[in-house]
Amino acid sequence: MKRALLPIALFALLTYCLPLVSLFVPALASGDEAGASSAPESARTNQSPAAQFLAPEAEQEPEATGSADSEVIRLWDAGSQQVLEVPLLEYLIGAAASEMPVTWPDEALKAQAIASHSYALYQRDRASADKLEGAWFSADPARRQGYMTREVLQSYWGEAFEANWARLEALFTPILHQVLTYEGAPAAACYHAISNGQTEASENVWSEALSYLAGVDSTLDLTAEGYEQTVTYTTQQMYDAIVLAVPGAEPEQGKPESWFGEASYTAAGYVDEIRCAGVFIRGTDLRTALGLRSACFSIQYADGVFSVTTKGYGHGVGLSQYGASAMALTGKSCAEILAHYYPGTALETLAE
């Protein structure tokens, strides 16, 4: 059984870690969701969040700032193992399409595009020539993680390709050079699929605290399909996962009800640490070990089965994609959505 679980655990770990190569270098390692490639399938189809109709507010024109070489995005294709140099507009279309359904509201799609652009430039400023052959970050177009090429989109959208491409092209051309900045530099505008109702502070997932990633309310996420999910594990599956993932853990045979103890929580309600077979493990590490959707989880044991219930989907830091869509349906603008999820940042236009 242990041998059978090892590939599963390794696959869960890769699924969690591959889509992002490095978010905060060297402090924050990219995980499945800096960019979210953690969005659930419903977030890539025609699923729409519940609307709450509020009056829209005026959007201010972003301030122009210094120029930056943002015409071409250099990314590492994890599938083909080569560097892609992608024209900016094509990148924004492929990045947004990999994260949100094209049918979602205009302002949410624009917010996602600007977040993806800002994140790419943040990575550019920290890229090393001896890593990824000089690419700024990693994506996997073939698996629809982080970015999709035109060819992948043609296959993905089928007969709707021309209409969908034209829709996003029209949306993103006016915001082509808009980025989020903090203290004059591109912001680490990471994102995820669904929060637990509150976004998480960056230092609780990685190691660096950034003031604009300190966590905000995102209560509309509670209405998302897939917000809460329960998965089950047999006693043997849980035993093998603990032994594999938790150094020093010694689950007591015959007493599985004793394997998990008290937990501490972050201010946003995600598991900070939990006692596991006599040792404490970070909630994010147990999430990886078990392949959980979120670090906001609870564990129950009964009748030989462990039931793990999660709330939200993704690391929880930065923009909630579902929350952005829900806010757009209330009439909020792209600028307002970004200001909410990245407080203290500025929306600026790079000189062409």
TrEMBL record:
Coiled coil: none
Domain Sporulation stage II protein D amidase enhancer LytB N-terminal, chain residue ranges per copy: 80-181
Any one GO BP annotation for this protein: sporulation resulting in formation of a cellular spore
Highest taxon listed in the record's lineage: Bacteria
InterPro entries to which the protein is assigned, alphabetical: SpoIID/LytB, SpoIID/LytB_N, Spore_II_D_firmicutes
Pfam families: SpoIID
Official protein name in the record: Stage II sporulation protein D
Gene: spoIID
